[in-house]
Specification:
By secondary structure, the chain is an alpha+beta fold. Helix content is 16%, strand content 45%. The chain starts with a strand and ends with a strand.
Length: 69
């Protein structure tokens, strides 16, 4: 079974999650408006986003079966 993310089909759940994690890195702002870099890594079937301020958010996205022909 393959999974779709942003119009691309991936052969495994792990590769789909890796593509999602690659999109979830950058720089946000904290409550004071200061720039705060963050990055996301794959942990099992979940994504773990960590900011430089120490905030950690874990999410488990629902993977979508590939619908492309």
């Amino acid at each position: 079974m393959s999974f779709q993310y942003k119009g691309v089909c991936y052969n495994t759940p792990e590769s789909t999650l890796a593509a999602m994690a690659a999109d979830m890195s950058g720089v946000g702002t904290d409550q004071n408006g200061n720039p705060t870099p963050y990055f996301t890594q794959v942990e099992g079937s979940s994504l773990k986003t960590i900011s430089s301020s120490g905030t950690v958010v874990v999410s488990t996205p629902q993977l979508v079966n590939c619908q492309m022909i």
